[in-house]
Write a structure and sequence with these properties.
By secondary structure, chain A is mainly beta. Chain A has no helices and eleven strands. In chain A, the strands form two sheets. In chain A, strands 2, 4, 5, 6, 9, 10 and 11 form a seven-stranded mixed beta sheet that branches. In chain A, strands 1-3-8-7 form a four-stranded antiparallel beta sheet, with no helix packed on it. Helix content of chain B is 0%, strand content 58%. In chain B, the strands form two sheets. In chain B, strands 2, 4, 5, 9, 10 and 11 form a six-stranded mixed beta sheet that branches. In chain B, strands 1-3-8-7-6 form a five-stranded antiparallel beta sheet, with no helix packed on it.
């Protein structure tokens, strides 16, 4: 059984639209994260949530907003989508910021 | 990839041989993690390291925080070891997340 569920697995969106990427973890971890992987770039940190609170020093554009409705959920809302947002978005979790477990990712294509 | 430099960028290994991957850090890393991204795209955690060494089966990893580098040794390479290996460093400020290198693409052939 997958320990971190990301939905959907693939997503095609039109420029200017809004989408929500879903992430649920069943590991009982107290920290969750979003990372982005684009072609020829290193995996890029976006957000860190600890005990359902956003930690400072977020690096992503304001068009990206994390949403945590439950302890083990951390969704990612993306507004005004651009073609440059095309990437694979990975959710991850850890206990006290130790070893990470990653989800299988959502591949987003913006056309 | 400037803050975490991985070498080599690609590696071709015959089954049964050994190899080493390296990461050099230009940030003050307190912990290091190594991941394997398999051909399906999944990221698998291999090691979480504070300064020191760890071993797991045919893999062994070391992290030297004073010299700012980490290594991953693959012994007796198998076909299923193929994929891209990433190292990632975490600084003391957890809010900054993990800083990843660009990866080492490993291909194991019979």
């Amino acid at each position: 059984d997958p320990k971190i569920i990301q939905k959907p697995k693939y997503l095609v969106a039109v420029t200017g639209s809004e989408k929500i990427l879903i992430c649920e973890q069943y590991l009982g971890h107290n920290a969750m994260y979003w990372y982005r992987q684009s072609a020829k770039k290193p995996l890029e940190f976006m957000f860190s949530y600890s005990y359902q609170k956003l930690m400072d020093n977020q690096t992503a554009s304001s068009r990206f907003q994390p949403q945590s409705s439950k302890k083990n959920h951390l969704d990612l809302q993306i507004t005004a989508l651009k073609p440059d947002d095309s990437a694979t978005y990975f959710c991850a979790s850890s206990q006290d910021h130790s070893d990470y477990t990653f989800g299988s990712g959502t591949r987003l294509l913006v056309i | 990839g400037d803050k975490v430099k991985q070498s080599p960028s690609a590696l071709s290994l015959q089954e049964g041989t050994n190899s080493a991957l390296r990461c050099n850090f230009s940030i003050a890393a307190t912990t290091v993690q190594w991941f394997l991204q398999n051909p399906r795209g999944s990221l698998i955690n291999l090691f979480y390291l504070v300064p020191g060494t760890k071993e797991n089966g045919r893999l062994k990893s070391a992290f030297d925080s004073k010299e700012s580098y980490s290594t991953l040794h693959i012994r007796d390479a198998q076909l299923e070891d193929s994929g891209t290996y990433f190292c990632a460093a975490e600084a003391r400020n957890y809010a900054q997340g993990l800083t990843f290198g660009l990866g080492t693409r490993v291909s194991v052939f019979p």
